[in-house]
Amino acid sequence: MKKDFLSIADLSAKEIWQVLLLVKKLKQRNANYFAGKTMVMLFEKPSLRTKLSFDIAFNQLGGHIVYFGSQEVGLGKRESVSDVAKIISSMADLIVARVFSHKDLEELADNSKVPVINALSDLEHPCQALADFLTVLEVKGRLEGLTLAYLGDGENNVPHSLVLGCALLGIDFRCASPKGYFMKKEIVQKAKQIAKATGVNILETENPEEAVKNADIIYTDTWVSMGDKDKEKRLKIFQPYQVSQSLMSLAKKDVIFMHDLPAYRGNEVASEVIDGPQSVVFLQAENRLYSQKGLLIYLMKFGRKKF
Ligand code: NVA
User: Fold this and answer.
1) pTM of the model
2) I need a surface site. Which of 113, 153, 219, 249 has the fewest CB within 10 A?
3) Domain of 97: which CATH number?
4) Each residue of 268-306: pLDDT tens digit?
5) Which atom of ligand 1 has the smallest separation from the CA of 228?
6) Which domain does 60 fall in, by range?
7) Distance between CA atoms of 297 and 57, rounded to whole angstroms?
């Protein structure tokens, strides 16, 4: 029985907590969990933090990595997605994939005998969200009862994973985006469904001031994600959503600023905010290493699928 991680909601709140608690232990020591194991990394898009942290995490846990960049495998072009999944999973123990289309990821997972981890797709970035929740827990000492305000491009992998994760973990979620750039409806529906059990409030608005009022966390992401084509239009339309010091001052006094990086200073965030004392962006980046170690160990416990 294998377990994939394509969406943050592939883990229950209890499982997310189990991963985060594993992380606490792992911060203190390395272990030889993965001696003799191989992880394949299949990346259709560029990466700094994700590639670095998965590679280092698997190595520190005693395993071996094979990395394929965008020019190599030709997922769904040079070779069908299902063939790629069957071949890799016949030899390796885990697949970490960064893809343009979430559908390819699902097809990869359906045809793989070993766990598939979403290292970013057009729909979600669940590994980033795991590191984000770890960061919030470390800085704020709790998750439940906090309010996270996300500003900018709502129809985007990062807020999609955040809203689902917040719904699971008891964090109120607000998203301020211009018309036409709200979160995908199916994601919001799923998050609202989860929120029924946790009592989380989910707000979508065009008004950035409304979103950040009394928030504990202000989060933003690039206005132009990998694969987005309408760059000039976006840079204009998103201007009112820049996280500035004056927007930060409408939130709680101890508000923190978060960003998954890479950041474009002067666009989605002012330099004085991202480089200022309320910013935790480098802790977020470093926490990718620890949260993914926890995730890898957790998923590997479930083993392989038998066809
Ligand atoms: N939304 C961004 C995240 C980068 C880590 C993108 O998809 O390019």
Assistant:
1) 0.97
2) 249
3) 3.40.50.1370
4) 999 999 999 999 999 999 999 999 999 999 999 888 887
5) 8
6) 8-125+288-300
7) 10
